[in-house]
Amino acid sequence: MSDISQLTTVDPLIEGQSSNENEVEQSGFSLREWLFKPRTLISFLLALAIIAFVFKGTNINVRETWAEMKQVKPGFYLLAFICFYATFPLRALRWRVILRSASFPVDAARHSWASLPALTEYIGLSWFANCVVPAKLGDAYRGYLLKHNGNVSFSRTIGTIVAERLLDMTVLFALLVGSGWVVFGTRLPPSARFIFVLGALLVVAIIVGLAAMRFLSPYIRKLIPARFSDLYQHFEAGTLESLKPGALPILLPLTALIWLGESLRLFFVVQALGSLHLALASIIFIALTSSLLTTIPATPGGLGLVEGGIAGILKSSLFAVSTGLAGAVVVLDRVINYWSIVIFGFVLYLFSKRK
Known about the structure:
The protein is mainly α. It has 16 helices and no strands. It has helices at about 10-15, 20-25, 30-35, 40-55, 60-70, 75-100, 115-130, 135-150, 155-185, 190-215, 215-225, 230-240, 250-275, 280-295, 305-315, 325-350. The protein is globular, with a radius of gyration of 20 Å.
């Protein structure tokens, strides 16, 4: 997504989803019910309002955008699709390493629920859910799928997903800083400075949260209501054990490879347009910045927010891309990392035996 998605991150997962997780665990997942809940409809209306505001505020001309899109080179655009969807088995492999680190029995031959195809399917279904319902519910849904198919602890599974998001956020920020340094050097513009500050605050929150979970666990457990005590202990164990030092030499390169795939998606979208010329470091910076925007759980799949972020960055004085080209990049990129997930994910949801 992602996941940076379908970049989901620490803040919405830890702070904003506890009620969603409880609801999913207790009653399962009904897509129809969630689609027609008031907050889902409101979030889509908000996304449409943001998109309309972006097109009006940045003076994106639909006719110019369409003219640019008609020049797209199919070969490069297909490569963008391939790079994006190649990250899904990589995400599944990383999650399997995390599950193994957290002592889940993923290596037993009889446990087909933890095979790479199965984990890839769970991730695909969760990204679809994240694209059609708000509040990053897809992450809780993924935890429920593993619990439902593997008969494992739901709260412990959520801990592994949180650990995955922590890895995503940390590596994303490191790559964002690196690409920003290459693009801007010491002359960091105010808009980029804001992005860096936001990312730095999230990383600090991650470090503080993990440190508190590890060293202040007895005090935290005293604050947890007794009925949630066991759930928190499983969640804490799942999070901390997932990030064992022995697993990090595998998890960090895998996470970097996943974000490289996300960046290559946008790189090939740009190449498909032909008339737009941006350095690879600039494309990585834009791709990772848009991923950072998906961490805001206000709309499904960051709809509206990501479009506005990409268009705003491209048209700003940083890159000064023309209106038509900026609109074409936004539309073509979101066809891949949002609308194709909605379409393919819906088909997967209809026919999946693991949902």
